[in-house]
Amino acid sequence: MKKKIKWGVIGSGGIALKRTIPEGIIPAANAELEIVYDINAQINKKVAEKFGVYAAQSIDELINSNIDAVYIATPANVHCQQAIACAKAKKHILCEKPLALTVEETKKMFQACKKANVNLGTAFMMRFQSQHQAALKMLRKGQIGKPVYARAQLSGWYPPIEGAWRQDPKQSGGGALMDMGIHCINLLEMFFGEVKQVSCFINNTVHNYKSEDSAAVMLCFKNGVIAMIDSFFCIPNASSKNILELYGSSGSIIAKRTLGQGAGKMSEMTAFLENQTCDDGICIKPDNINMYKAEIEQFSHAIITKQYSLNDEDAGIRTQKIIAACYESAKTGKSVKCR
């Protein structure tokens, strides 16, 4: 049985350089970085030299090399074509969110991967955050009773930047909702199951770029849970507490600073349970595990053992459908059922 999965990276700058390569692929016990590619040749050369790997001159060169899997970290508008190319080359794919610009594109990606018999995953790394996993176990054990309500806040300051693809919906698919709110939606579905209906408001409250800088969503889950998500590009980083709140009929779980790219040692989670003796709640302290490392190791393990990953294509496609319903709701001013 193969012990290590050989990885290539398409889009080696940005989140790949900042987080996924150094915190995920490099330290992962069952993964090794082999080759990288970026449209910016200078950045790609620096990344290759930094990690001692080969700098590909093209995507074709990368996908035709001796690798098993590809991490795609490019703008969303090229995810579909890049993923299909990787699938045709029989490479497993972990793709940044959103999987694509539209639900139809995600279906094409899924079909190409199914035909090639390769795994397709979406990089929802927050699923692997140790405190989120601890909260999931508590929910499954019924420790807060019947789930009732949830709130997830993920916001920050993102001023206008010339050429920033996240500020152009033709490249990104959307702004604060698509970039940050999508993580919250996916995480809440991990906790509570499928969303059946949404109501959404988006706006450009402060910044004048084409993507929205403000988004608030109300979600109704099939099991009756109601949730709120707020994501803004126009709230200063220090002002946004990025809190996750989970409420049940006999308790609650409140997590601070567990949402976001850098969630880790400074995060904290407290449970307030029925009949507990401490008014300040019970501090939940699972072993701190880097979520990028956990994500890469779990996806690599899924490839080795020929199993599905925790962030497989179903999670990506479901979230894409919910996001599409959110934007439809914002456009029409009506509540929209998720199809």
Q: Notable features of this structure?
A:
339 residues; alpha/beta; 9-stranded mixed β-sheet; 6-stranded parallel β-sheet; 10 helices; 15 strands; globular
Question: Could you explain the architecture of this structure?
Answer:
The chain has helices spanning 15-25, 41-51, 59-63, 79-88, 103-116, 130-140, 169-172, 176-192, 291-305, 313-332; strands at 5-10, 31-37, 54-55, 69-72, 92-95, 120-122, 147-153, 195-203, 214-221, 226-232, 243-248, 251-256, 268-273, 282-284, 336-337. The chain is of the alpha/beta class. The strands form two sheets. It has a nine-stranded mixed β-sheet with strand order 14-13-12-11-7-10-9-8-15. Strand 9 and strand 10 (226-232) form a beta hairpin. Helix 4 runs parallel beside helix 5 (103-116). The mean pLDDT is 95.
Compact overview of the structure:
This protein has ten helices and 15 strands.
Helices and strands in order:
Blueprint: E1 5-10, H1 15-25, E2 31-37, H2 41-51, E3 54-55, H3 59-63, E4 69-72, H4 79-88, E5 92-95, H5 103-116, E6 120-122, H6 130-140, E7 147-153, H7 169-172, H8 176-192, E8 195-203, E9 214-221, E10 226-232, E11 243-248, E12 251-256, E13 268-273, E14 282-284, H9 291-305, H10 313-332, E15 336-337
Helix pairs in contact: 1-9, 4-5, 5-10, 8-10
